[in-house]
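Technical note accompanying the year-one report. For the benefit of new consortium partners, we illustrate the data format agreed upon in the data management plan: each record pairs a sequence with a C-alpha cell string. No post-processing was applied to the example shown here.
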Amino acid sequence: MDFLQVAILPISLILFGVLAFQKWSALILGPLLALLVAAVAGLPLMDTMLGPYMETAAAYIKSFFLVFFVGSVFGSVMEETGAAKSLAQWMTSLTKGKYVAPLIMTVTGILTYGGISGFVIFFAMYPVALHMFKEANLSRRLIPATISAGCWTWSMSGPGTPAIQNVIPMRFLGTSPLADPIGGTMTTLLQFVLIFIYLEWQGRQYARKGFTFVEDEHVRKFTSSLDVTQKLPNPVISIIPCILILLLFNVFHVKVEASVLFGILAGFLLLLKYGGGYQQWVSIFNNGAMNSAPAILNTAIVVGFAGVVRQTPGFTTLIDGLKGLNMPPLLFVATVVAVAAGAAGSASGGLSVAFAALKDTFIGMGVPLPWVHRISVIAAGTLDTLPHQGAQITLLAICHQTHREAYWPIAVTQIFVPMIAVAALILYHAMGLP
C-alpha cells in the first residue's frame, strides 16, 4: 500500500499529461485526478475536495486574481489600440523580420528580469507575439514556448533576479540574490543561447513541414479591431506604459497590481484617440476583464490538485525517501528540488517543500551555500514544467493552443535546457571552480 501511495503521484502526473494531450480540459482533469489521488491515499474524498483542494484553489485565486485581472485589461488596451502591433512592427524591424521567436523570448526575459510578473507578461506579450508571428508567417504553436521560456528559465534563475524562486533560498540559507555569481551567470548565458538557437531552429522546422501562421476564428476575433488602414501609435508612446510598470515595480517598489493599474491608466491617456469613442473603450475594458476569468480558473483548478498531492502520505514518503539517497551533495540538491517541483507543479512550491523538509541537510552537506542556492533555483525550473503545471495551462489557454499542438517546444526549452544548465553547473563546481 505504501508503494501504491507513492506510485500514484507519478501515475497521476502521467495520466494528466496523456489526457491533456487528448484535449481534456484542465477544469475536468484537476478535480478528477485529485479524487483519484485522494482515493488511493485513503483520504476522505469529499472532505479533501471541499478542504485542501478548494482551499488551495481559492487561496491561489485570492493571491493572484488582481494580477490576472489588471494584466488582462492591460493586454486588451495594448492590443485594441494598436500599441501592441506598433511595438511588434518596430521590434521586427530591428532584425528585419528575422529571429522573431528568439526576439520575443529575449524581450520577455528582460521584462521578467526587471521584476514583471510572468502572468502580467503573458497578457502583455501575447498580442505582440501574435502580430510578429503573423508578419513572419510563423506557426502559432511556438508562441507559448517563446513567451514562457523568457519568463521561467534564465530570467527566473539568474543571479540578481527578483523572481520569488530566487528569494526562497535566500530566506532559508541566508544567501544573497547574487549567490554564485560566476557559475550562475555562466548558466544564465548557457540557457539563453540554447533556447535562442532552438526556437529559431524549431520555427524553421515547422515551416519546412508546412506549419505556418493560421488565421482562425480566434485570431480574427482577437485582431478584429485592427485593420490595415488603422493609424498606429508611435512605438515610443506605445512602450511608455510598459516602462512605467517596470519603474514603479522595480525602482519605487509599488505592488505589481498597482503598477499595472497605473500602466492601464497611462495607456488610456496616451492611446485615447487610438481606442475609439466611449463605447469602444467600454468594450476594450470589458473584453480584458472577461478574458481574465477563464485564465485564472484553469490555473487554480490545477493548483488545487497540487494541494491534494501535498496532503498525501505518499508525498511525505517521497520527500523522506529522497533524504536517504546516496549521491554527490549538489546532485542530491538538484534531484530533490526537481522532484518536489514536479510533484507540486510549481517551481516556488517545490523549493518551499524541499527547503522546509531538508534545510538542515542542505546546510550540513559541507558545500558552499551559494552553490546550493543557485543549483536549487535552476533545478526548480525543470520538472515543474510537466503538463499539469498551472501557469503553462494558463498560457496555452491565452494563446488558444492545446498541449498536443504546443507542449513539445515548452518541454524542450523549460525542462531539457534547464536540466543541461544545472548539470553543467554541478560539473563546474565539482571541478572545484568558484
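Partners are asked to follow this layout when depositing records. The chain has two domains: 2-60+303-430, 63-161+210-286.
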